[in-house]
Amino acid sequence: MDEQQHNALELPKGLYEPVLRQPMELDFLLGQELSLCFHDLDGSHVFKTCYGDICKAVNALRDYARLLEMACEQWDLTGFHRALYEYHAEKMREIAGKFQAGIGYDYDAAMEKCRRKKKRKKKEDDFGEDALVLAFKRTKQPAEQMKEADTDVDDSPWEEDEDEQESDD
Q1: Which residue windows does the record flag with biased composition (Acidic residues) (predicted)?
Q2: Domain assignments of the chain as residue spans, ordered by start
C-alpha cells in the first residue's frame, strides 16, 4: 500500500469539497496582485496591488471625507477653512468613486451590511472565547434563573421553623 494512501483521510468528497474549495478560490482571486500604471511628469509608474488593498483605500477615502464634513460642523468652520474641507471631502469621494467603480465595490452597501450585522443580538456561545469564560457564563445563567424563581416563592425552611417555634410558645 502506498504511504500517501495510508495517511489520507477517507471523507466523502462531494460533501466537503464545495465548502472547502470556494473560500480558497475566492482568497486566491482576491489576493492576486494587479499591476496599475499611471503617467506624470516623471514618466510612467507601475505598482502592484490587489482587490483587498483597493477596498481598504476606498473605505479610508470615504471615512476621511466623512470626518472632514464632521469637523466642519463640530468646529463651526466658516469661510476659507470650511470651503477647503468641503472641497477635499468632495475630491476624496470622487477618487473613492473611481476606485470602487473600477473594482465593482460598493462602500454604501458594505456599510449597510455592517450596520445590520452590528444590530443583531450577540450570541453568548462565541466559539472564539476562552473556555473558562464560557464555562463561567454557563454556570451563571442557571444561577440567575434559580434566583428569579426563588424571589417569586419563598420556600425557606428556616421561616417554617420560626413559625413552629412561635406556635410552641
Answers
A1: 151-169
A2: 52-110
- Kindly give the interhelix angle for 13-31 and 51-74, rounded to the nearest 10 degrees: 60
Give the residue carrying C-alpha cell 473594482.
103
Contacts of 93 (CB under 8 A, 6+ apart): 61, 62, 65
Written as nine digits, the cell of 28 is 486566491
Q: For residues 47 and 35, give the distance between their C-alpha atoms in angstroms, rounded to a whole number.
A: 6
pTM: 0.54
Burial 92-118 (b: 16+ CB within 10 A, else e): bbeebeebbeeeebebeeeeeeeeeee
444590530: which residue's cell? Answer: 119
- Segment 34-40 shows an average pLDDT of 82
**Per-residue pLDDT tens over the stretch 79-131:** 999 999 999 999 999 999 999 998 899 999 999 998 898 888 766 555 666 77
Q: Determine the Cα–Cα distance for residues 45 and 47; give it in Å rounded to an integer.
A: 7
Measured CA to CA in angstroms, residue 32 lies from 22, 56, 61, 128 at distances of 16, 15, 22, 29
The answer to whether the beta carbons of residues 111 and 77 sit under 8 Å apart is: no
Q: 77, 85 in Cβ contact below 8 A?
A: yes
